[in-house]
Specification:
mainly beta
Length: about 120
């Protein structure tokens, strides 16, 4: 009923940049918040950045000043600058939304980001 499609992952050298995008589609009444999570091998999934309906943003300390999140309607993007090897992970789009009569949480398929030193 709801689909989150991610794009923009890839391989980049330390200090480089990538831009991730997530397109939400389907039966969506409203979006409460969207965000990006990441999971590195052997580690738990963690919140990278999030944005609420009113435009407030929240960043992990490790990416503050380097990453920027924004959303325009059903398209969310994450600009990633000055990438570091520790940023290497699978990045997942997340949406907290209302569909039909209920609040729901949906996840994208994930996109690999690899930063080489």
């Amino acid at each position: 009923q709801v689909q989150l499609v991610e794009s923009g992952g890839g391989l980049v050298q330390a200090g480089g940049s990538l831009r991730l995008s997530c397109a939400a589609s389907g039966s969506i009444f409203s979006i409460n918040a969207m965000g990006w999570y990441r999971q590195a091998p052997g580690k738990q999934r963690e919140l990278v950045a999030a944005i609420t309906r009113d435009g407030n943003t929240n960043y992990a300390d490790s990416v503050k000043g380097r990453f920027t999140i924004w959303r325009t309607n059903r398209m969310m993007s994450l600009q990633m600058d000055n990438l570091k090897p520790e940023d290497t992970a699978v990045y997942y789009c997340n949406a907290d939304l209302r569909s039909g009569l209920t609040n729901q949480v949906w996840w994208g398929q994930g996109t690999q980001v690899t930063v080489s030193s």
